[in-house]
Structures are given as C-alpha cells and as structure tokens.
C-alpha cells in the first residue's frame, strides 16, 4: 500500500465521525429524525386512508399470475398449520412478523456507526419505499387474506398469541391497536428487510447473507400467517428495488458532481493535495 494511502478501516472510521462543530448527539438526532417521522406517518396513515371512502379490494386472484402462486396461503396453512396445537413454526413466524420495525432500526444503528454515508442512503431508501406505499394504500386499499377470506384463512398471529398465554394487558395493546387494516399491497414487511440486505451486504458479506436469509424468512412468514398474498410480497420487492435504485442513482450523480468540484479545486491549486 502506498505511503499515506488510507485503508478501508480508516475510511469507514472517518465517515463515522461527526462534522466539526457537531456533537454526536446532535448528529444522531439529525440523522434519525426522518425515520422517527416515518413511524409517526405510519401511525397517522390509517386516519388518512379511511377518509377517501375508496372500497378495499381483494387481490387474491393476482397470485395466479405468479408461477405456482395460486392459493399459496391456503396451501401453506393446510399443510403446516394445526389449529388445535401450538407449533414452533407459528411462534417463529409470529416473532419474525413483529420484528418489522426492530430489524431496520438495528441495521440502521450498525450502518450509522460504521458507514454514515451508507446509513443515509439506507434511510432515504426506506423513506422512498414508504412514500410510494403510503400513496398506494390511500388510492388502492386492499385486504389481507385473513380479512378478505375469513372463512378460509386463519389469522395465525392472533391464535398463536392466545395459545402462548401472553399476559392480557400485552394482548390488549396488540388487539386494540388502531392500525390500517387495508394496507396489504405492497407489503412493507417484505420491503424493509430487502432494503436492509441491500445496504448491509457491501458493509459486511456475513451481515448481508444473514439479512438476505431473514428476508426470505419474512416473505414466507407473512404469507403463511395469512397477513399477505404473494402478490403483496412481490409488490414489496418491486417497491424496495425501485427505492434503492432511485436513491443510488441520485447519490451517484451527487457524488460525480462533488468529484468534479474537487478536481476543479485541485487544478486551480496547481494539483497539490
């Protein structure tokens, strides 16, 4: 390595340092404020969606467009779900489902500490995917399988919680939580871990591999639990991919512009560094 050339550890450490004049606390607040606003927007969305008066649609028929996807939820529950017993798959899938916000927050913390630039792109991609999804929820409200076909699809999460004998006060927090029931398409449960995997992979291959495996586990879980159709999952993948590509494209153009300014300044100073 040439003398004076920074290694990757030095580069990452430099990226993680706050700018002069900023405290770590202030930097943290500035960087995480958009994601906190995202949670608030997620909560407020249910009220906005209910004001449009647009009837909710059942998209189960679109699963047939996906090869082998027709009736996926019904087939999975018929093969793997036993209503009279508590199975380990039910507990695992429910746990995975409830990590919806926890996983992005954890990945965000890792990225924030180790690569501030990558964290900001990660958070921008999350915001972009959610913005697209929120607009879709308002204009095209859709029912999850358990609500669209209550006589055929089990709401496995509710039944699993009851079988686990979870304390009543904790159950009431979940049961009586006023969330938007008609926000199945696209599945943000499916989009969030894919975005996390996209940004975690280049930071560390092991982290990326874990997040990719987790992503597939989420996709399976939301369909098995009766929370989403396959078409909802596919839409989540499309929305996540579009958000990541858009953010990276904008970031690369910004980077090129910054590089040209740097080169111009370097030329003006006689090329000295």
Structural summary, described in words:
This protein is mainly α. The longest helix is centred in the last third of the chain and has 39 residues, at 230-268. Residues 1-22 and 256-273 have low confidence and may be disordered. It has one domain (19-268). The protein has helices spanning 8-16, 24-51, 72-80, 88-97, 102-114, 116-139, 145-148, 156-163, 168-175, 188-201, 205-224, 230-268.
Helix content: 55-70%
What's the shape?
globular
Oligomerization category of the chains in this entry: single chain
Main sheet record: none
Roughly what fraction of the amino acids lie in strands?
A: under 5%
| Count of individual helical segments | 12
